[in-house]
Structures are given as structure tokens and as C-alpha cells.
Write a structure and sequence with these properties.
This protein starts with a helix and ends with a strand. The radius of gyration is 53 Å and the shape is elongated. The chain has eleven helices and nine strands. It has a five-stranded antiparallel β-sheet with strand order 8-7-6-5-9, with no helix packed on it. A hairpin with a 5-residue loop joins strand 7 and strand 8. By secondary structure, the chain is mainly alpha-helical.
């Protein structure tokens, strides 16, 4: 049987008071340790995040981090280090919530409980001390009464043996002695009674009341120690919980990123990035001074560095090719200031950068293809969002209690306009790439503008790329949404355009096709593309070529001007 504080330490109240106080103070000490440990974790996490931010690729270097495996995987390493930093923040957070706050709460509870127990013990000590003082008082009174009786007894005996004393004096001495004796007996009885009470109080104090209080203090202290052990376990568990994640991050650095570095891929990426497609220079011609007229004359080498834009004859378009030289004259004088020249050069640079014609052919092609893929991805995302809204509108139409289907029209209209703009932008970049619907079997077919009777090639008139897909459906439009199609090759457009046999070689224009129907413009449509026909709401147009699934309808108005319009903008009659 284990010993208890109540039986073994019955006389060590002062020692127990100091011991329990030190125990509660230790909780404060442990909490300070946890707080400093938490601060270390937070500082370490912050340092890791600063490290990741410091070595993360800058915006100008993002492209290199995408194409080179060594840089791309290093970016992954930085992400894993950032994840490790997040785990250390989680450790710090768990320490505060699961350990620090709990220790503060336990300390407050134990401090109050200790004060209550000690107050109760002191009250019992005070009661016991009061009983002892009362016993001492009764004992002192009994001693005084006894001494007074003895003194009275001596005087009586002396008076009784003295023959010279009168009988009255002897009786008086005897009466005094008897009174003193009675008072002595009374004090003796009170003393005996108080002694009995004090002994009972003392017995109860040391055998029951004080041991009970001491045992409560013992239970309190043992609970404190037990909680400390649990807090130690929780403290360790805060670390153990994140170890699998940290280990996974380190494994990913080792396997997913470390083993993903491929030198051959980086070498090919470097070639792809800087390959111009230009041919090495030819042999330099000999300058023969003996030949007549050959002094100082050399043959100029052919220029092979031609961009995509120049190959397609696109230098005639705005922003394609080199900027014209500024000739002296009235306008040269006006814009001769540095400020004006800087502004104009900036505007020209922004136009020139749109088709990347300032780059070598291969690099220009890569840039344009990347832009096309980016815009196509945005279109696909918007189409998916619109399809979801259309399905939701169908559900609302079937069950009006779920919602008003007309409430989605505004969102559908907004998404539709956004898709229209994206597809027009896609059309522009596909033209820069040389994707045009007006080529057949390697021959360029001129598209005649019936309004002015002028013909032109795609390099002279920007043709709509049929592969760019239709503008998105506007709410309440009778046409149905079609997913955007991928860029079509020239041969895929053969059926939709003028045959070579129908081409009028004398005039250089295509024969007028017969209308296949009529339609009415439901919405206004405007575009700067010369091969797209502008129309106003309510205008009646002849349908020359129906929508083949790409979202564009070829129409002609009464003045014989032709062009393409979004199928979703017209209502076929």
C-alpha cells in the first residue's frame, strides 16, 4: 500500500506549501520553454519562406524556368521547401493551441485549488490552536484555584491549632477554605472537560481533517505531474504529425525533382530557344583586281533571314516588318524632339511585338504558337463555364422552384461577349502564323470585296480564320453553342471557298455564288477585319455559305459587299 501525505507528512504543512508552490511555478517555466520553442519554429519557417522568395524566378526568367528541366525542377524544390516551411508554422501553431494554452489553463486551476486547500488547512490549524489556548486557560485557572485553596487550608490549620484564636476566627478560616476548595473543584472539572475536548479536537485534526487536506494536495500535485507528462507527449506529437509531410517533401525533392533533371532535354530546349532557322553564310566571293571594273566590287550576299510575317507578305499590315525611317520634312521637324521620338518609338515597338516579327522565323513561330495555345485554353475554359450555365438554365426551366432561368441571361451574355473577343484575338494570331482559309493547293485565291470591286490576297486583306470558331451564343439566340474547333489546315477549307476553275483570270476575282437563303441580324456586329462584314440590328442579308460547324456564316448585303458574321448573331429565315 502506497503511503500518503496525510499520514506520513502530517506535521509538514509548511513544506507541502512550498513544494506545491514550486510545482505551479514549474508550469510557468515549462510554458516559457514552449513559447520560445514556438518562436524558433516561426522564425525558422519565416527564414525558409524568405529563402524561397529570394531564389524564386523573377518574371523575366519565368520562361527559362519552364523550358529547362534543371531550372524547372529547382522551382519544384523551392515549392517543397515552402511546404516544409508551412509545416513548421503548423508545428508552432499546434504548440500554442495544444500545449501552451492548456498549460496556462491548468496553472490557473491548480493555483486556485491549492489556495483553497491551504486556506482550509490554516482554518483547521487555527481551530486547533484555539482549543489549545482554551485548555491552557482552564489549566491556568485550575492551578490558581488550587493554590488559593492550599493557602486557605494552611491558614485554617494554623488558626485551628492556635489557642489564642477565637472560635469565630477559626470558623471564618474554615469557611474560606471550603469556598476555595469548591472553586478549585469547579476549575478542575472545567479543566478536565476542556482537556477532553482538546484531545478530541487534536485527534480529529491529525487523524482526519489535516490528512484529508494533505491528500487533496497530493492528488492535485499528482494531477499536475500527470498533465505535464501528457503535455510532453503532445509536444512531441506536434513534431511527429508533420514528419510524414516533411519526409514526403524531401522524397519529392530527391525523386520527383532530383531524378527529373535531364541534360539532353535542356540541350534541346536551348537549341529550340535560340535556333533562328537561318542558313550559314555562303563563301565570300573573291575580289579580282585584275578584272576590268572589278576593283572594289564585291557581290552582296543573299539575305536568308526572313521572318514569318515577311514570308507571308504581311509586312503591308500594321505593325509588321520594320518601322519606316523618319524622313526630314515638316513632320520630321514636328516630331524631332526626344520626347516625341521616344513616344512614337514606344508605340511602334508595342505594335511590332504583337506578331513577334522582330524575332527570327523559328522563334517567331514558337511565340505565336504559344500565344495561340494560351488563347485557345482561355476559350475552352469560358466554353465549359457557359455549358454549365446552360445546363443550369435548363434545370431552372424544368423546375422554376429552383430558380429563375432568366437570371442567368446576363451571365451568359457576358461570357458570350468574352468568348467573341477571345476568338477574334485567336483569329488575329492565327493569321500571323499563316493559317488562312483562302488558300487552296498552294495557290492564293483572291477574295473580292463586292463593295469596291478590289481584290486582295490574305496578306493584303485579313481573312477570318474559320478554325477560330463562332462567337459565343447570346442569350435567347436561336443558334446552339458549338465547341471551338482547332486550327484547320488550308485543305480543310476547300469545300467552303471558291474553286480554282471558277476563278476569273481576267479580272482576278471569284465568281459570285448564288444565295442559299436569307437571315436577319439580331444584334449589331462590328469588326476591323476586312473579311468580316459589319451589320446593324434588323438588317436582312443573303446567306452565301451556311455555317459548317465553325460558328461563321458567309453573307452578302444588298450592295454586294460580302463577309463573315457570327452565326449566333443572325436568325435564318
Amino acid at each position: 500500500m502506497s503511503k500518503s501525505w496525510g499520514t506520513e507528512l502530517w506535521d509538514q504543512l509548511s513544506a507541502l506549501e512550498k513544494f506545491t508552490e514550486k510545482g505551479i511555478d514549474f508550469l510557468d517555466n515549462f510554458n516559457r520553454f514552449v513559447r520560445e520553442r514556438q518562436k524558433i519554429e516561426m522564425d525558422y519557417a519565416a527564414q525558409l519562406k524568405r529563402l524561397v522568395k529570394s531564389y524564386s524566378p523573377k518574371r523575366k526568367d519565368e520562361e527559362e524556368y519552364k523550358i529547362y528541366s534543371s531550372l524547372r525542377t529547382f522551382k519544384g524544390v523551392l515549392q517543397e521547401v515552402g511546404s516544409i516551411a508551412n509545416q513548421h508554422e503548423l508545428v508552432a501553431e499546434n504548440m500554442v493551441q495544444s500545449v501552451f494554452n492548456e498549460v496556462v489553463k491548468l496553472r490557473q486551476e491548480l493555483k486556485k485549488e491549492r489556495m483553497d486547500h491551504l486556506h482550509e488547512a490554516k482554518q483547521e490549524d487555527a481551530h486547533m490552536e484555539k482549543s489549545r489556548r482554551k485548555l491552557d486557560s482552564c489549566k491556568s485557572q485550575y492551578r490558581s484555584a488550587h493554590e488559593a485553596w492550599l493557602q486557605a487550608k494552611i491558614l485554617f490549620e494554623k488558626a485551628d491549632s492556635d489557642d489564642n484564636r477565637t472560635k469565630a476566627e477559626v470558623e471564618r478560616a474554615k469557611s474560606t477554605m471550603e469556598q476555595k476548595d469548591q472553586f478549585r473543584e469547579k476549575q478542575k472539572n472545567e479543566y478536565i472537560l476542556q482537556l477532553k475536548n482538546t484531545n478530541e479536537d487534536q485527534q480529529e485534526h491529525y487523524s482526519s481533517k489535516l490528512p484529508t487536506i494533505f491528500n487533496k494536495l497530493q492528488a492535485m500535485e499528482e494531477r499536475r505531474i500527470t498533465c505535464l507528462g501528457k503535455y510532453y507527449e503532445t509536444y512531441a506529437d506536434c513534431h511527429k504529425k508533420v514528419l510524414p509531410v516533411i519526409t514526403q517533401c524531401l522524397d519529392d525533392i530527391q525523386v520527383k525533382h532530383g531524378q527529373a533533371v535531364t541534360p539532353a532535354e535542356d540541350s534541346q530546349a536551348l537549341i529550340t530557344k535560340f535556333e533562328t532557322g537561318n542558313q550559314p553564310p555562303k563563301d565570300l566571293p573573291m575580289m579580282d583586281l585584275d578584272e576590268p571594273g572589278g576593283r572594289g566590287q564585291t557581290q552582296a550576299p543573299e539575305k536568308d533571314n526572313v521572318s514569318i510575317g515577311s514570308q507571308n507578305g504581311a509586312n503591308s499590315l500594321p505593325g509588321r516588318g520594320k518601322a519606316p525611317k523618319n524622313k526630314k520634312g515638316v513632320f520630321g521637324t514636328i516630331f524631332s524632339s526626344k520626347k516625341e521620338r521616344g513616344r512614337l518609338s514606344g508605340l511602334w515597338a508595342s505594335e511590332e511585338a504583337k506578331d513577334f516579327s522582330h524575332l527570327p522565323p523559328n522563334q517567331q513561330k514558337q511565340k505565336l504558337q504559344g500565344k495561340i495555345d494560351e488563347i485557345q485554353g482561355k476559350i475552352d475554359q469560358e466554353v465549359k463555364q457557359k455549358e454549365a450555365l446552360l445546363k443550369m438554365r435548363d434545370v431552372y426551366t424544368a423546375n422554376n422552384s429552383l430558380g429563375d432561368p432568366n437570371s442567368l441571361n446576363k451571365q451568359l451574355e457576358t461570357i458570350g461577349k468574352k468568348i467573341d473577343l477571345l476568338r477574334l484575338e485567336l483569329n488575329t494570331y492565327q493569321k500571323f502564323m499563316g493559317h488562312t482559309a483562302y488558300k487552296r493547293n498552294g495557290k492564293v485565291v483572291e477574295f473580292k470585296d463586292k463593295a469596291d470591286g478590289k481584290g486582295g490576297t490574305p496578306s493584303q486583306k485579313s481573312s477570318p480564320t474559320r478554325s477560330s470558331g463562332p462567337p459565343a451564343n447570346v442569350p435567347n439566340s436561336p443558334s446552339k453553342e458549338r465547341p471551338p474547333s482547332s486550327p484547320l489546315s488550308p485543305l480543310e477549307h476547300e469545300d467552303s471557298f471558291i474553286d480554282d476553275d471558277d476563278f476569273d483570270e481576267d479580272e482576278g476575282t471569284a465568281a459570285d455564288p448564288k444565295p442559299v437563303g436569307t437571315c436577319t441580324a439580331m444584334y449589331e456586329f462590328n469588326s476591323d477585319d476586312p473579311n468580316l462584314l459589319n451589320m446593324v440590328e434588323g438588317e436582312v442579308l443573303d446567306v452565301i455559305e451556311k455555317d459548317s460547324g465553325d460558328g461563321w456564316t458567309r453573307v452578302r448585303r444588298s450592295d454586294n459587299s460580302e463577309g463573315y458574321v457570327p452565326t449566333s448573331y443572325v436568325n435564318h429565315l
